[in-house]
Amino acid sequence: MKAEADVIVIGGGSTGTGIVRDLALRGVNPLLVEKNDLAAGATGACQGLLHSGGRYVVSDRQSARECYSENRILRKIAPSCVEETDGLFVSLPDDGLEYQQQFVRACEAIGIPFDVLSPEKAIALEPNLSRGVIGAVRVPDASINPFTLVFENAKAAANLGGTIMPHTRVTELIVQGERVKGVRAIRPQTGEILEVYSEFVINAAGAWAGEVVQTVGLSIPLLYAKGSILITSRRPTERVVNRCRPPSDGDIVVPNETTGLIGTTSIQVEGLDHLTIEPREVELLLDETAQMVPGLSSARIIRAFAGVRPLFQQFEVKDDRQVGRGFVVIDHDQRDGLMGLASIVGGKMATYRLMAEKVVDLVCEKLGITAECTTDREPLPSSQKRGFISLAERLKKIDPGKRRDPEKDSIICECELVTRREIEEAIMVEGASDLNDIRIQTRMGTGPCQGAFCVYKALGILAEMGKLDGSLNSEMLKNFLERRWRGIHPIVAGDQLKEEQLTQEIYAGVFNLDKEGLEAKDNV
Amino acid sequence: MKYDVIVIGAGLSGLMAAKEAADNGMKTMILGKGMGLMHVLSGGIDLLGYYPGEDMTTQNGIHPALIKLIQNEPDHPYARVGMEDIKGALRSFSEVFGPEAYHYTGTPGRNTTLPTGVGTLRPSYLVPSTMIGGKDILSRPTLLIGFHGFGSFYSVYAAKNLMRLGNRRGDIRLRSEDIEVSDIAGRSIFKAASLASQLDEESFRERVAARIRMALNGEDLVGFPAVLGLREAANVKMDLEARIGAQVFELSVLPPSIPGMRLFEIFKRRLQAGGVRMILGFEVISAMRKNRYCHCVVLKTPSGERRYEADSFVLATGGLFGGGLRAERDRIVEPIFQLPVAQPKSRKAWFHDELFGPRSHPINRAGIRTDTRLNPIDENRRVILQNLFVAGSILGHHDPTREKSGTGVMIATGFKAVRNLLEK
């Protein structure tokens, strides 16, 4: 297949989808290609923190300033993705209060609003905090759902005529003379080969940005820092709780809808594949964060995941936390003499909009487009605030009085109260085509049983709606279970391990999926 | 009041042990927290579906495979039981059904392969009389029936997957159809147990049968999710067959397992009729011991702790899923007697990276170390408690879900634990 677009964007994370939306708003016709699902890289593996800037305020004022300004913008333009939780930076006896003083001075200098709280006040606000807290500072941290954010940006771009193509892997950049003219790509699910021509290509492939430009003999020096995060079965706190000390392992707890995210580690890794979570990382995260929130030492951990932060490496450093969290726009014309190509690397999810703005500014300048960026004021499509966690909100949708159709309103995912109607809508309206899409859009399978029951039900619904190719059925089920397993086996113990045994009882024990294709052949 | 035998655990191994003890005139009591794995059983009783570590089925005959297993894997629970007592255990199991029309069946020495609710095929040794018809699913024109409003079985999905398997073997005729039916109260959303008890009612069955008569298109075999009656399954099957005019079978679906619940109820009736006292719903939390003998166990109830004395005890509390073993963050423990647990050397070695990879997860083989008499032993192979016998999944040293040997091990070791106890 051949196609054309004004600008091709490679990468479907927060940056890439932010870029296509920005381009589309400026009247440029964009096309986005992503080799995997949307938000499958660092975006989907991030902690879901909308930084107040506090985390970087002492070490990297530039990043802190950007964070705070983006924080204010996203609260306005993306209310459906942001939960305004607030955050605390708490000091424990071992930390002393010296860092807190530096922290407060830096917040003052940059203009991040803060309140210094007494230990009693902090505990009154957040009763699960350790009784040993010696001080706390309140800052406007918030929790953000990176998946919704990416889908919202993609949807906005598509509404404006842009094209979003997940599961499309770029195989090479098309170069004519000294100019990039487009990309060749393959869609592994169908084997289809694609050739798209454009005026400009933006490489927003995050950790994979180096791979993209490698096809034309260029390189981008990136440092990969693996970060592991644990998910708890309940919300451990109502606010984001940070440790008030220089950034380190296990210093943050982020409430996220019905769960909590405990983070994070930072371990330099060589490759991007097979990110494993070591049992010692799990111990470290639990030990450290339990100092702030003691209940976490016995919390039920339902899942762990690891992502790679692609840090732009300008010079040799020992500790990867010293590499700036800032971002860099590379104009390959200026740097390498190759026209029609820009890369954007580094940065973080919370500043995705600003990153998009900067790279789109550069591209518009190159293409002679004068339209201004409006993403700082134009709200995303679903501008309605969501009721995130209250039980009342969640029960409302299954209120028997409001059930129009008993089958459609029946609950498929009992942990997260997801109804059949919601799953059907994710498939019909939002175009979900596999279990992972459904999970991201509905929270199906994200509760304590981690999909043990609902994954089969969702497949059944996909089959009933004619969305399954018969030859892929069991593969899809197995892939989902294998993928979920990666996040589970490093952390599982206690009651959660019983849940896991149940999953094996069902899918290997009852359904014999482990031996599929190896059935007793001469008996039938 | 002192018992001859107290069985701790009301799963299949505990029920089997209690049956054997009562049949031999012992004053017997069961203390059970739940019903073990009964509600997640596939329905069949497995002996050995796959030789450990091999993908090949035991299709060439189960007995040679078991003999090889007993020789080569001396720590496997089957090696503790021996061939003769495995057979004895199966005979004893079949007695449980007595005159009941609902019973287990199969071909001596061979597995029967049945379809499952996800459209895979699964070998089992003894299968309920209501499920046996499924063995012909790929050779006879078959209609799979689903119920709208019953979310544990999707007939389209199962049929599609079975077609895919079947098409490798040549032409098969398999269709699926979902029927809409509501109970007398007008409800049309069903959980497994409510649908099963509705099907125990004749009027509901007739409404179901009427829909199926409409849907039939020459098929002479009709498959249902395994919810055909809670109390009268054999009768429900026969009655439906008469009303539909085709052979009927059930296939295993997502838990809770109705065939497992039936089995539990049948055992319970049999044991209570045989004078076994059952206290269900509470947990045994500790035991009191003296000189290598256990003399009483402590049951935790809302009104306080209660002690029960006996001459002998059977520990049949299940594995990691049943709660007989508990995984702390970095080690596996046995919570009642603090028996040593054979387990992987470190936390890191519990699992493999692939869930369904070729090797079984080492943690799934964790269990209590016993001597050949099923008495628990310490690191120096000394018996820890002379009058405690261990049975069922807690024995470890096998991988029930991979080998498809779980229910067979439960029956065989529950039986054998009591045989050993009687020989004392």
What is the element layout, followed by pairings?
The complex is a heterodimer of chains A (about 525) and B (about 425).
Chain A: E1 2-10, H1 14-25, E2 30-33, E3 49-50, H2 61-77, E4 82-83, E5 87-91, H3 98-110, E6 115-117, H4 119-125, E7 135-139, E8 142-144, H5 146-159, E9 163-165, E10 169-176, E11 179-187, E12 192-203, H6 209-214, E13 222-232, E14 240-243, E15 252-256, E16 259-263, E17 267-269, H7 279-292, E18 301-312, E19 327-331, H8 332-336, E20 341-346, H9 352-367, H10 391-396, E21 411-413, E22 418-419, H11 420-428, H12 435-442, H13 454-464, H14 473-488, H15 494-510
Parallel strand pairs in A: 1-2, 1-12, 2-9, 5-14, 12-20
Antiparallel strand pairs in A: 3-8, 4-8, 5-7, 6-7, 10-11, 11-12, 13-16, 13-17, 13-18, 14-15, 15-16, 19-20, 21-22
Helix pairs in contact in A: 1-5, 1-9, 11-12
Chain B: E1 2-8, H1 12-23, E2 28-32, H2 62-72, H3 77-81, H4 83-95, E3 104-105, E4 112-115, E5 121-124, E6 127-128, E7 142-147, H5 155-167, E8 174-179, H6 192-199, H7 202-215, E9 221-225, H8 233-244, E10 247-251, H9 258-273, E11 277-280, E12 283-290, E13 293-301, E14 304-315, E15 326-327, E16 332-333, E17 341-342, E18 367-368, E19 388-390, H10 400-403, H11 406-423
Parallel strand pairs in B: 1-2, 1-14, 2-11, 7-8, 7-9, 9-10, 14-19
Antiparallel strand pairs in B: 3-6, 4-5, 12-13, 13-14, 15-16, 17-18
Helix pairs in contact in B: 1-9, 1-11, 4-11, 7-8
Summarize the structure in words:
The complex is a heterodimer of chains A (524) and B (424). Chain A is of the alpha+beta class and 524 residues long. Helices cover 33% and strands 23% of the residues of chain A. Chain A contains 15 helices and 22 strands. Chain A has helices at residues 14-25, 61-77, 98-110, 119-125, 146-159, 209-214, 279-292, 332-336, 352-367, 391-396, 420-428, 435-442, 454-464, 473-488, 494-510; strands spanning 2-10, 30-33, 49-50, 82-83, 87-91, 115-117, 135-139, 142-144, 163-165, 169-176, 179-187, 192-203, 222-232, 240-243, 252-256, 259-263, 267-269, 301-312, 327-331, 341-346, 411-413, 418-419. The longest helix of chain A is centred in the N-terminal third of the chain and has 17 residues, at 61-77. In chain A, 55% of the residues are buried. The model of chain A is unreliable at 316-323 and 520-524 (pLDDT under 50). Chain B is of the alpha/beta class. Chain B has eleven helices and 19 strands. Chain B has helices at 12-23, 62-72, 77-81, 83-95, 155-167, 192-199, 202-215, 233-244, 258-273, 400-403, 406-423, and strands spanning 2-8, 28-32, 104-105, 112-115, 121-124, 127-128, 142-147, 174-179, 221-225, 247-251, 277-280, 283-290, 293-301, 304-315, 326-327, 332-333, 341-342, 367-368, 388-390. In chain B, strands 1, 2, 11, 12, 13, 14 and 19 form a seven-stranded mixed β-sheet that branches. A four-stranded parallel β-sheet of chain B has the order 8-7-9-10, sandwiched between helices. The chains are: A alpha+beta (524), B alpha/beta (424). At the A-B interface, helix 13, helix 14 and helix 15 of A face strand 5, helix 5, strand 15 and helix 10 of B.
